[in-house]
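Many introductory courses stop at the sequence. We go one step further.
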Amino acid sequence: MDEKDWTCLNTIFDKKNLTRASEILYISQPALTYRIRELEKELSIKIFIKGKGTVKFTKEGHLLVEYAKKMLVELNKLKDELHKMNQPGNGILNITVGETFSHAELPDILSNFHQLYPNIKFNITSINPHNILDNLANAKSHITIIRSELDWNDPQLLLRKDPICIISKKPLLLKNLPKYPRINFLLTTSTKKAVDDWWQEHFSVPPLIGMSVCQSESCLEMVRQNLGYAIGPLYPSQAASLQNELQVMTLQHKDGTPFKINLVAYYRQEVGKMEIVKTFINFLKQHYSAQNPF
């Protein structure tokens, strides 16, 4: 049984007349009768008995009509919910972000977005930097924002290029960097590779790792205590706040080009067709184009 069957049953029951029901349904009476006979065969019941100019539903037919009415009500509710979800001003937006981005930039973005679309709600989760592709392919998130360059065939939006910097308590000589203890923290695979490539480009010896921590904030706190230096990308708000208490040196490649990593919004092709997602993507484009990121 499907929606057409439910509608046919409901209409016949309301009108108690096959001719009138067929006119309302815009199908011929023989076609309507055939559809009912097929239902009766499928369910092994008699749905109604034809009388003179009218039909009388059997006990089984009454039960079937009650089911059809309920299913039509539920279907209409579902269509209504889906319609609301596909409107730009309603629904829940699921966003997955990196740990640092979640407190460095996301609150400001969502605050501005909320002013434009106050009825949209958010569900925010943090991503595991070592398991990004699995999260993108299988998670319920609509959009993933992360500083990572992935082998991703679905849509992606480059938001900005962030500088990778050396952060230290005191000024450091770049040529003596291998002699200083470094504090490592959890980076995405592509960012870690970029840092390693830059190191090999400048030095023939490995770095002196003095400590490893999980989160960037923990790493910065260790740097504040002068326990070592760190290498990693910084968001503009981070760089501005750190300038007054720590030394921040923007790195370059040997050819003089800036050493940067991409901040990217990734999403799946089918998800990008949803109005709520398209609205947020367009907002991100405007938000970051205003920063003149490149």
